[in-house]
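User: You have something folded?
Assistant:
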Amino acid sequence: MRALAITFGIAIALVGCSGSASNDSDAGPTDAGSLIDAGPPACSATFSGNFSDQAAISSGCGTLSLGGTSGTDWLLQLTASSSVAGAQLRVKVDLGSAPTAGDFTDATLETWSAVAVGATSCEYSAGNLAVPAGSFELTLTEVSGLPSAPVAHGNLQILLHVSAPATVDCGAGDVEQAFLAF
């Protein structure tokens, strides 16, 4: 049997962790823009689409650290787990050697990846080495404290694709959205 391939979209909204934000709507947003505008809870992930889930972002709400392809580039790293899907989403975006606030995409920051493997072996993947690659849009509203106390805030939307093993159901729909507050 052939593995089923479906689209898995993830939109990640990054907002400041230093304060508290709240989402007044228990029903959740209907699209990525409305959640970003509503101000999701800081350091949290909300998944909707094939499954619905809320979780905290792991590792202290994301990190900005040296690494990348050259070893001197700054990497934005986020990890969020869904207990419903049994998957841990790991995102890495190479911001280059001198990151600044602004708007970026997979065309302007070419080294990136986003991967999650669920308990049923459903794989959600995107990145410059993935096939198909998926895409992302990143708005950094703050990059500060380099190099000793790096901080990054903003929002990120990622489109991932799903690979399902034969006879495995990765969900009723073909699009999943995750909103991460950072």
